Backbone:
């Protein structure tokens, strides 16, 4: 059964970089441990820096970057430097605090390449919110992929379709890249407590309702959920167990404690975060009145 369908909202994350934002949403702040979801592009790659995301901080979450086309280079305050290509995964645990940048301008993109992908945030369990930061990269060949007639499922994190991803995670996120041929259907297991599908292309039907590209459909817990392809369709499954307690979110910070968010804000303002080696430029703290972080 469908709980709700969430349309994307346009958001700008700097320069010419506009994204389609799905989470958080005013009536649905999270799906499983996923508290944030942006679709990047597809947008033609340019090397003028307008698609670069400069150095900025995070606490209390893990970022998951997954691309369909184009490439970008990740750098962080741990000293990690990693170019990510389509089908690969970057998992970055912010924990007690990390700074990173994502640059398109110095990645090995070819002429006429388009940047297209997703970045999601996973709220860390309360017990791991202040864990040491970490970064890991996984090649596309490491991710299990199931192919049947008219069905393809690549498991990015967690377990799905009798396969388990090798990506080491916190928070138990289930995340998969799925394709269905016209007329094919896929049942989403009820043991995933909270489930959503985000349609990238084509359209799906569930419970007699159409789900179009750019929409995130969230299903009721413990109820049967079957999605069928009206035409060739590609979508992302995301979900997992319900969050253990409400999360506060402000800017790039996520925590069960507003005090930790306040501390992170002041640390960034005062330059107390460990910097990225040899990195130029950063995203300043947002100006204006600072509202209290809103709990999910």
Residues:
């Amino acid at each position: 059964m469908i709980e709700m369908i969430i349309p994307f909202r346009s958001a700008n994350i700097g320069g010419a970089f506009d994204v389609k934002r799905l989470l958080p949403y005013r009536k649905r702040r999270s799906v499983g441990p996923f508290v944030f979801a942006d679709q990047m592009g597809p947008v033609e790659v340019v090397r003028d820096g307008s698609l670069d995301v400069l150095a900025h901080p995070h606490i209390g979450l893990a970022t998951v970057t997954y691309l369909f086309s184009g490439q970008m280079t990740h750098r962080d305050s741990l000293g990690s430097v990693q170019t990510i290509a389509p089908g690969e995964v970057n998992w970055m645990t912010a924990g007690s605090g990390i700074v990173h940048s994502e640059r398109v301008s110095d990645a090995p993109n070819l002429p006429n390449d388009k940047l297209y992908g997703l970045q999601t945030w996973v709220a860390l369990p309360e017990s791991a919110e202040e864990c040491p930061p970490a970064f890991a990269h996984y090649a596309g060949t490491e991710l299990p992929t199931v192919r049947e007639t008219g069905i393809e499922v690549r498991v990015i994190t967690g377990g799905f379709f009798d396969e388990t991803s090798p990506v080491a995670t916190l928070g138990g996120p289930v995340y998969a890249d799925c394709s269905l041929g016209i007329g094919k259907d896929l049942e989403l297991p009820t043991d995933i407590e909270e489930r959503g599908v985000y349609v990238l292309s084509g359209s799906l039907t569930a419970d007699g309702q159409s789900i179009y590209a750019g929409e995130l459909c969230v299903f009721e817990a413990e109820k049967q959920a079957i999605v069928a392809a009206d035409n060739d369709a590609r979508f992302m499954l995301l979900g997992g167990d319900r969050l253990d307690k409400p999360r506060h979110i402000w800017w790039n910070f996520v925590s069960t404690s507003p005090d930790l968010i306040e501390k992170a804000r002041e640390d960034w303002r005062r330059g107390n975060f460990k910097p990225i080696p040899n990195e130029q430029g950063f995203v300043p703290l947002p100006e204006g009145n600072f509202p209290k972080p809103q709990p999910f």
Notes: The chain has one helix and 27 strands. The chain has a mean pLDDT of 95. Residues 2-240 form a domain with the Jelly Rolls fold (CATH 2.60.120.10).
